[in-house]
Amino acid sequence: MNWITNYVRPRINSIFSRREVPENLWTKCGECGTMLFHRELKENLNVCTQCGHHMGISPRDRFLSLFDGGIFTEIDVPAPIADPLHFKDQKKYPERMKAAQKKTGEKEAMLVAEGEIGRTPIVACAQDFSFMGGSMSMYVGNAIVAAAERAVEMKRPLVLFSAAGGARMQEGILGLMQMPRTTIAVQMLKEAGLPYIVVLTHPTTGGVTASYAMLGDVQIAEPNALIGFAGARVIEQTIREKLPEGFQRAEYLLDHGMLDRVTDRNEMREELITIVRMLLELPPAVKGDLPAPSAENGTDAAGEPAEAAKAE
Predict the structure, then answer these.
(1) If DSSP codes are grouped into helix, strand and coil, which group holds residue 4?
(2) Cβ atoms 154, 124 nearer than 8 A
(3) How many domains does the chain have?
(4) 155 with 86: CB under 8 angstroms?
(5) What secondary structure letter does DSSP report for 18?
(6) Which residues lie below 8 Å from residue 177, measured CB to CB, with a gap of 6+?
């Protein structure tokens, strides 16, 4: 053993050897190919900072950016029968459910919550495309019914973020039956005179588009979101014609009267605040206004006692 073995070789190895890099630090944009640092991407709500491409975002992260102070309360959703058809393809349905729950950290494809946006109380629900393609299941149907009932009970608007590939095939006709169920839930809101606003995100297709996703009083979409019932290839094969460029994309639907707005995700919160307050015939929200005092601890957002805030 000499100084070359003991010192020079380890020194060379430390310089040229491959360093261990933690996983998930970078995300590649599927549109422009730019490598995006995960923290920077998260701060921009999963929107590419280079080209503006809107990537998927979980319902929980969406709600954190939507509600005042990121504060919201989840609404309980009745649990349906776990495996009504005892469905099995390459895997059993319960196994697929467990895998999706482990992947997303959520128990199902829709999250329902209530809170305030611009000091305006609302009920909101959002689908998670990462959970089995956001497929419409009995649970999703229960979630929308629970959200509508809560909105009617509290006399609040309902805001729904859709993202789905259609009905869940593992539940067969029971999944398809959620189309009329959710339509009736939306009708409850309309009869109560409450606003129902839909934000269509990428992708929204199948039976979801054919039911609750296209029944909003106001229809908003994120940029370049795929929105449609059948796939473009199926339509082309059926009508035997070439479809126009951009067909079934949000901008195309906006130009042809299917949507009211196409709004960037970073501007969505302000847009929804404006629309909700307008439909409720309330004055515009005050910029920089503090959220309402907390009922739990009796303090406002600045940490001052609620009584003092009221006195001022």
Answers:
(1) helix
(2) no
(3) 2
(4) no
(5) P
(6) 141
Residue type, 154: M
Measured torsion, CA atoms of residues 300, 45, 197, 181, in degrees rounded to the nearest 10: -110
Pairwise CA distance, residues 189 & 78, whole Å: 20
C-alpha distances in Å from residue 111, one per residue of 46, 59, 73, 92, 218: 19, 6, 11, 24, 21
What is the domain-level CATH number for residue 72?
3.90.226.10
The label of the residue with tokens 């009970």 reads 153
pLDDT tens across the length of the chain (312 residues): 566 666 656 666 666 555 555 566 899 998 999 999 999 999 999 999 999 999 999 999 999 999 999 999 999 999 999 999 999 999 999 999 999 999 999 999 999 999 999 999 999 999 999 999 999 999 999 999 999 999 999 999 999 999 999 999 999 999 999 999 999 999 999 999 999 999 999 999 999 999 999 999 999 999 999 999 998 899 999 999 999 989 999 999 999 999 999 999 999 999 999 999 999 999 998 876 555 555 554 444 444 444 444 444
How far does the chain reach from its first CA to its final CA, in angstroms?
80
pTM of the model: 0.84
Report helix, strand or coil for 243. coil
Same domain membership, residue 216 and residue 104: yes
**209 within domain boundaries:** yes
Q: Are residues 159 and 44 in the same domain?
A: no
Residue with tokens 């701060």: 43
Cα–Cα distance for residue pair 86/236, rounded to 1 Å: 35
CA 279 centroid distance within chain = 22
Same domain, 74 and 43: no
The amino acid at residue 9 is R
Domain that holds residue 41: 24-55
Residue 50 lies in a domain: yes
Using CA atoms, how far apart are residues 251 and 258, in angstroms rounded to an integer? 10
**CB count, 10 Å around CB of 8?**
11
| Residue 299 located in a structural domain | no
**Could you tell me which of 268, 267, 263, 226 has the C-alpha nearest to residue 248?**
226
